[in-house]
Amino acid sequence: xxxxxxxxxxxxxxxxxxxxxxxxxxxxxxxxxxxxxxxxxxxxxxxxxxxxxxxxxxxxxxxxxxxxxxxxxxxxxxxxxxxxxxxxxxxxxxxxxxxxxxxxxxxxxxxxxxxxxxxxxxxxxxxxxxxxxxxxxxxxxxxxxxxxxxxxxxxxxxxxxxxxxxxxxxxxxxxxxxxxxxxxxxxxxxxxxxxxxxxxxxxxxxxxxxxxxxxxxxxxxxxxxxxxxxxxxxxxxxxxxxxxxxxxxxxxxxxxxxxxxxxxxxxxxxxxxxxxxxxxxxxxxxxxxxxxxxxxxxxxxxxxxxxxxxxxxxxxxxxxxxxxxxxxxxxxxxxxxxxxxxxxxxxxxxxxxxxxxxxxxxxxxxxxxxxxxxxxxxxxxxxxxxxxxxxxxxxxxxxxxxxxxxxxxxxxxxxxxxxxxxxxxxxxxxxxxxxxxxxx
Length: 440
What we know:
Elements: H1 2-69, H2 71-88, H3 96-111, H4 127-136, H5 143-170, H6 177-187, H7 190-199, H8 203-218, H9 222-235, H10 243-253, H11 260-270, H12 273-277, H13 284-292, E1 300-301, H14 314-337, H15 346-363, E2 367-368, H16 373-385, H17 390-403, H18 405-409, H19 416-434
Helix pairs in contact: 2-6, 5-6, 5-7, 5-8, 5-16, 6-16, 8-9, 8-16, 9-11, 10-14, 14-15, 15-16, 15-19, 16-17, 17-19
């Protein structure tokens, strides 16, 4: 009996042991299965992460490649938008010209019936610009914004045209590095920004047309060139500053008829059609400019003038100033005709045009600070065509910026020291122009 009890106890212990071992093995099996599953999940996550990284990398790589391929166009777009913002923040600035002249002309025309107001002269601008003002009166927009917006549109056209001239001259691609550099330089030239967006003036409009006229003249597209010149004259009398160069080029080149000047004259006259329809005299465009020439009796008006060195005696120096400017232009024409000054390449052609502009602006009487606008832009083009002209473009831009001070902010302005510096730079520019060599 004792033996049977002992046997039952022993068997029970064995069953419990086996049962415990079984449960233990089951737990181990479960743990092993979980570990395998967890390990597999981790591997799957890692694989997915690697695939995701590879996918992101491929997208990024394609994006970077696309940016690299279109970087010039993207830069052009960014500069265009930044230029718009710089001009946009100046929309509320009311300059003395805007307050005292441009806005009164607008409201006067609006009260007189818009285009019907062209029957009388309002202000001293010619018929083409008066017609634009009359059209503005029909639009439900802020007049100051319309004045500035119109001028700013031509800022972009001018910058684009300048860049195109340089790239065509140097055989560089459009929207490439050179194109964007010139476009940026002109679009952000301080006087270009201030003139349109802050002052509300329209110098970019006639300067764009003058630049197009010059470039088309060089390219041999004479009829279109003289048409553009006529439109420029219809906007601003200051277009006349480029006329001595065009006459000299005509005499030296002998490749187009003098009758082409008639295209300019006819275009200028036709710009007065809205005024003729309103009942004005058929010579109105000419009489307006004749009136303008007698408006100011000063040797200079905040401009970079040679006559700062002599004094502001208009009656004493007016005749001398006109004769000096005509003599210098005649000398330039003489040198071109003798082939001592060549105009056979883009840089020589444009630099020579700049010289004639500089003569008129620096030596003629009654010059305003804004009259150097076209010179600034053309010198920038010249500087990009040949680096030896960079210093002259920089000086012109700085001098113009200084000269804007008194009228806009009643601060700064040019003085005798500035006039001496400009005289020295003009002489230096003349010497460089006479002894120029083609850039390497």
